[in-house]
Design a protein that fits this description.
The complex is a heterodimer of chains A (170) and B (549). Chain A has 7 helices and 5 strands. In chain A, helix 2 (40-51) packs antiparallel against helix 3, helix 3 (56-66) packs across helix 4 and helix 6 (106-117) crosses helix 7 (159-169). Chain A has 2 domains: 4-79, no CATH class; 91-169, Glutaredoxin. In chain A, a hairpin with a 2-residue loop joins strand 4 and strand 5. The model of chain A is unreliable at 1-8 (pLDDT under 50). The longest helix of chain A has 12 residues, at 40-51. Chain A is α+β, with helices and mostly antiparallel strands and 170 residues long. Chain B is α/β, with parallel strands linked by helices. Chain B has 4 domains: 20-114, Glutaredoxin, CATH 3.40.30; 145-347, NADH-ubiquinone oxidoreductase 51kDa subunit (Rossmann fold, 3-Layer(aba) Sandwich); 357-440, Roll (Ubiquitin-like (UB roll)), CATH 3.10.20; 445-537, NADH-ubiquinone oxidoreductase 51kDa subunit, iron-sulphur binding domain (de novo design (two linked rop proteins)), CATH 1.20.1440. In chain B, 42% of the residues lie in helices and 13% in strands. Chain B is built from 22 helices and 14 strands. The longest helix of chain B has 18 residues, at 465-482. The model of chain B has no long low-confidence stretch (mean pLDDT 92). Classes of the chains: A alpha+beta (170), B alpha/beta (549). Chains A and B meet through helix 2, helix 4, helix 5 and strand 5 of A and helix 2, strand 8, strand 10, strand 14 and helix 18 of B.
């Protein structure tokens, strides 16, 4: 609070990269935090929520707005696993690789996806249909092995069931 | 808000409950939601509407514990999971279930509740979990909530609160097991005017979901614990640092903060006193190392989550260089009960050096996976075989992994061991935050060690060399062993490197990264040795593990 508000005096706001309305949402987050450098992670979360990933110009814009060196913004954006600098496919499938899922065969799930779509976790299929990601633990260990397909958690899956589920959405 | 207001709300809720014919509770924690409990809730609500039954209440509640049998629905009892409980309910069952309310129970879906899974538990932290609606503050108040805070700020001095926490013998539930009372006293004694309280909800251990369940099922309990901590140490601002991977918990927490602030239980001048306490939520962004306290503070400050050497400890110099109290979710969730019922009461539960109860997340190759709360000192075997219902499919128990990537694997001979901080440590594992993964004979221990090392390698923040480079080399060696390409000298090298990484890393992540390897070497060395080739088959040059992949 005390230190956080230090940075509050308002600089001349940089202009957003384009007139996309979503920048307004990003600006609200920055304003609410008094354009403080401490709000960097919050702001990056918001940018990613709005645009799906962090592109170069977004990082530049956030750096300028918060008065931070670009190197720091890039450093933070690449440090945290949840931030992605690449656009995601139309659908995402997150495979949980937590311990419980590992013990119950999450490897078979990723192998099945690789066999069927030739993508490994971290990759997107040609044509940007499906991005496959891995998560450290989504905390639904009682349902292991689990995946999150387009935001929906699917539990106690076999490889064949998973492929069926993906086929339905893709 | 004062004590009378709290009593009024309690009476109102009790009156409303009395006038109801039935109360059906549907588990809406993340695990059951992903099995479709949302549709079950809607289905039941539609039934109530269709029948125009105003006196039947269909209520969304938090985790009932037995996640593997979800979606769970309990009927009428205030002690769900002790009486009429239904399991594996689907949207198609709702009509039949609804009709059975005034009739005989629906045996087809009934979940037995006279089993050890329910009867052996003792609940403090999870007392309201699965009973109250986590999105209704009145429900929490009616269950006795916010009384401790109200009493503390109006009738007790800071020292009184500190004394109760010290007397309780409560130890940090996040993994380290540092006595909470001591930590609180250090922050309370610090002369600086600005102090912070941080709730560490960055539950990164794979296979652990206790904190998520507590926050999803009873967020106000954690907030009350934080406010009590703030009062005791003299802090007026607090942060909850929570994983962004838990969207439901984040949402419920934010709702809870809003409700409590509106009622004057948080925010400026709480409970009509001079004490203020404001809570902000900060989202993590997927870095395991941020569970380490100094890295967590860096992350709240908007930096890369990298730890720094201690001392100075956060209690002296923490967030923005102010004295900071950092406690884990479960630690703080114990506080309202400790302040309410007294430290001596808490101390009477558990064992001498590990007081109270502990929440465990049971998962892996076990019949009943889910969330349990048991008194400290319970034998490990009782958790696995009785509460957990043993190993399914007629397989044999092999090991139980506690403490996540910082812990170890305990073999069969430890099933008689009481579960306490110190016994677990001496057996080569740690209490950790409470994840318990059970493995049967199909799991290869070398594979398990490699799995955890891969985790630590990926999650190393890169600040210090022993962890950054050491975990890569350890992973390479384990990979070689698992693939059957290693020789006995590789095994020696592995052990030596484990010692180096353990002794020289900067923070807990690196220092404990070798634990899964060391504990599996200690108890399952034969599995490593079976995979070794004779020295004569050694590659002509020592193979260097490259950093590229």
């Amino acid at each position: 609070m005390l230190m956080e508000r230090q940075n509050t005096e308002r600089r001349a706001a940089p202009t957003p990269p384009d007139d996309d309305k979503r920048w307004k949402i990003v600006n609200v987050t920055m304003r609410r935090n008094g354009y403080s450098g401490h709000a960097l992670i919050e702001t990056l979360h918001k940018v990613q929520d709005c645009f799906g990933y962090l592109e170069d110009r977004s990082l530049r814009y956030v750096a300028m707005s918060l008065g931070l060196p670009l190197s720091k913004v890039y450093g933070v954006a690449t440090f945290y696993h949840l931030f992605t600098l690449k656009p995601q496919g139309k659908h995402t499938c997150v495979i949980c690789t937590g311990t419980a899922c590992y013990i119950k065969g999450s490897r078979e799930l990723s192998t099945a996806i690789e066999d069927r779509y030739s993508v490994k976790p971290g990759q997107t299929t040609k044509g940007n249909e499906l991005s496959v990601l891995s998560a450290r633990c989504i905390g639904s260990c009682g349902l292991a092995p689990t995946v999150v397909l387009d935001g929906k958690v699917l539990g106690q899956l076999t490889a064949a069931e998973l492929i069926d589920e993906i086929e339905e959405v893709v | 808000m004062n004590l009378e207001d709290l009593s009024d709300i309690t009476e109102e809720v009790a009156e409303a409950a009395k006038s109801r014919r039935h109360c059906v509770r549907v588990c809406m924690a993340a695990s059951c939601q992903s099995c479709g409990s949302g549709e079950v809730l809607e289905g039941l609500q539609a039934q109530a509407k269709q029948n125009a039954d105003d006196d039947v209440c269909i209520k969304p509640v938090g985790c009932m514990g037995l996640c593997s049998a979800g979606p769970l629905v309990s009927v009428d009892s205030d002690q769900p999971a002790t009486e009429l409980l239904y399991q594996d309910v689907t949207a198609d069952d709702t009509e039949e279930l609804y009709r059975s309310l005034d009739d005989d129970p629906l045996e087809r879906l009934r979940c037995r509740t006279d089993v050890p899974f329910f009867s052996r538990q003792q609940k403090i932290v999870l007392r309201n979990s699965g009973i109250i609606d986590p999105e209704q503050i009145d429900d929490y108040i009616a269950a006795g909530g916010y009384r401790s805070l109200m009493r503390a700020v109006t009738e007790m001095t800071r020292e009184d609160v500190l004394r109760e926490v010290k007397e309780s013998g409560l130890r940090g539930r996040g993994g380290g097991g540092y006595p909470a009372g001591l930590k609180w006293a250090t922050v309370a004694m610090a002369p600086e005017p600005h102090k912070y309280v941080i709730c560490n909800a960055d539950e990164g251990d794979p296979g652990a979901f206790m904190d998520r369940a507590v926050l999803e099922s009873d967020p106000h309990r954690v907030l009350e614990g934080m406010a009590l901590a703030g009062y005791a140490v003299g802090a007026e601002h607090a942060y909850i640092y929570i994983r962004a991977e838990y969207p439901l918990a984040v949402e419920r927490l934010k709702t809870a903060i809003k409700q409590a602030t509106k009622k004057g239980l948080l925010g400026r001048r709480i409970c009509e006193t001079a004490h203020s306490f404001e809570v902000e939520v900060r989202l993590g962004a997927g870095a395991f190392v941020c569970g380490e306290e100094t890295a967590l503070m860096a992350s709240i400050e908007g930096q890369r989550g990298q730890p720094r050497p201690r001392p100075p400890y956060p209690a002296e110099e923490g967030l923005w260089k102010c004295p900071t109290l950092i406690n884990n979710v479960e630690t703080l969730a114990n506080i309202p009960a400790i302040v309410g019922k007294g430290g001596a009461w808490f101390k009477s539960i558990g064992t001498e050096r590990s007081t109270g109860t502990k929440v465990f997340a049971l998962a892996g190759r076990i019949a009943n996976s889910g969330l349990i709360e048991v008194p400290m000192g319970i034998p490990l075997g009782e958790i696995v075989n009785e509460i957990g219902g043993g190993i399914p499919d007629g397989r044999r128990f092999k090991a139980v992994q506690t403490g996540g990537p910082s812990g170890g694997c305990l073999p069969e001979q430890y099933l008689d061991m009481p579960v306490e901080y110190d016994t677990l440590r001496s057996a080569g594992s740690i209490m950790g935050s409470g994840g318990m993964i059970v493995m049967d004979e199909t799991s290869s221990m070398v594979d398990v060690a490699r799995y955890f090392m891969e985790f630590c390698m990926d999650e190393s923040c890169g600040k210090c060399v022993p962890c950054r480079a050491g975990t890569v080399q350890l992973y390479g060696l384990l990979d070689k062993i698992a693939d059957g390409e290693a020789t006995p000298s590789d095994l020696e090298l592995l052990e030596e490197l484990c010692d180096v990484v353990q002794a020289t890393s900067l923070c807990g992540l690196g220092q404990t990264a070798p634990n899964p390897v060391l504990s599996t070497l200690r108890y399952f060395r034969h599995e490593y040795e079976e995979k070794l080739r004779p020295e004569s088959e050694r590659m002509p040059r020592m193979q260097i593990v490259t950093l590229d992949d």
